[in-house]
């Protein structure tokens, strides 16, 4: 297309002539496609960008100045549009990369908290089913951290009784909790 033919088509395009737009499209579509493809490295993305560039050209047709270099104008639009796409894609990728681990870790934390709460309920129920004295000894030892001497002294029993009661409580709890081992919470 000669400069004079291009200028005539640009004047017609400014007036909304679709045939002039078609001629300009046919003249530039491949050039813009390959120009864009160098940046985005994807033919599908390059095609989409070029199509949107021509939609934009149609939308801003009234602003075209046929006396200025149209090549500079259309390539500047193409370059800016392509760079904006690349920036937007990079931002979206960065957002996804940050969101997925945060979402996953949040989801994982929630699942862990639920499992922890359910396990605590099962353990508490098992402890509550112990005989009262054994339950008291176990709670003092394992939940409150009182040593055997302290428990024996507080409850008025021998240190050996404390030890035996803790062993029996632990054995019972281990057997009770083993039935939940293969169950997913």
Description:
With 185 residues, the protein is an all-alpha fold. 82% of the residues lie in helices and 0% in strands.
Observed structural traits:
7 helices, 185 residues
Quaternary state, please? single chain
Helix content range of the residues, please?
over 70%
Low-confidence stretches: none
| Outline | rod-shaped
Measured on Cα atoms, how large is the radius of gyration? 38 Å
β-strand number? 0
Mean pLDDT: 86
Q: Based on helices, strands and strand pairing, what is the structural class?
A: mainly alpha
Q: Layout of SSEs?
A:
Layout: H1 3-14, H2 18-40, H3 43-59, H4 70-128, H5 132-143, H6 148-155, H7 159-178
Helix pairs in contact: 1-2, 2-3, 2-4, 3-4, 4-7, 5-7, 6-7
Question: Short summary of the structure?
Answer:
The chain is mainly α. The longest helix has 59 residues, at 70-128. The protein has 7 helices and no strands.
